[in-house]
């Protein structure tokens, strides 16, 4: 039996934004898709931009689920196609269903995520942490046996995720980071939705500075 491992797939696409001009523009963006498992079975964390590339990375392994950290377009836009390709179920926190529908309309996820829900894959326990703030239904997935937490867009190297939308909350994301992520061991790797990974210990000293700057 092979050892469980974490694999990173970087996918590329565009993200619609509304700048000061009021006209939507598409900006290029890279996303991290994380695959957790062994040679036999995996789960996929986020489904961004390129279902074919993610399917190729999974190969012939059984996919036990597609776990979404939140409902933003760049994290879910390949989810429906990927689920069909891999014959897998899509998991999303219900508080992000409205955001999901902006991308997928009436096609709904299969299973509602809840705080504390566990997923077993290749002997690894992934625990769902509800971490609202970036979006109402943002979640992270903690994998203590792998020394990692998949932090989505809640925590990055250098601070919390953006809270510029009307449904976002900066105080809430700070509370989520403080109570859900900063209680993890300091050497826990934070595997982010974009960019390079960090650790809990590397980010903890800057919490007060983030609060002071307000973003």
From TrEMBL:
SMART domains noted in UniProt: Lactamase_B
Ranges of residues in domain Metallo-beta-lactamase: 30-194
Domain of life: Bacteria
Keyword vocabulary terms for this entry: Hydrolase
Signal sequence region: none
InterPro entries xrefs: MBL_Glyoxalase_II, Metallo-B-lactamas, RibonucZ/Hydroxyglut_hydro
Gene3D superfamilies: Ribonuclease Z/Hydroxyacylglutathione hydrolase-like
MF terms (GO), sorted A to Z: hydrolase activity
Record has Transferase as a keyword: no
UniProt name for this protein: Zn-dependent hydrolase
Organism the protein comes from: Leucobacter chromiiresistens
């Amino acid at each position: 039996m092979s050892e469980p491992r974490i694999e990173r797939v970087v996918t590329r696409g565009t993200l619609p934004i509304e700048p000061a001009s009021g006209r939507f523009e598409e900006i290029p963006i890279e996303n991290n898709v994380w695959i957790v498992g062994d040679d036999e079975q995996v789960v996929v964390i986020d489904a961004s931009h390129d279902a074919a590339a993610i399917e190729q990375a999974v190969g012939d392994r059984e996919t036990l689920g597609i776990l979404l950290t939140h409902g933003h377009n760049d994290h879910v836009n390949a989810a429906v196609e990927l689920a069909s390709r891999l014959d897998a179920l899509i998991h999303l926190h219900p508080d992000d269903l409205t955001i999901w529908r902006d991308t997928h309309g009436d096609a709904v996820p299969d299973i509602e995520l809840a705080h504390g829900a566990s997923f077993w894959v290749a002997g690894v326990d992934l625990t769902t942490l509800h971490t609202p703030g970036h979006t109402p239904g943002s979640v992270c997935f903690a994998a203590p046996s792998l020394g990692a937490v998949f932090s989505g867009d809640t925590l990055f190297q250098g601070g919390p995720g953006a809270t510029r939308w009307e449904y976002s909350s900066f105080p809430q994301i700070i509370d989520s980071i403080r109570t859900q992520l900063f209680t993890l061991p300091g050497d826990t790797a934070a595997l982010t939705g974009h960019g390079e990974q960090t650790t809990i210990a590397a980010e903890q000293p800057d919490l007060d500075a983030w609060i002071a700057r307000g973003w």
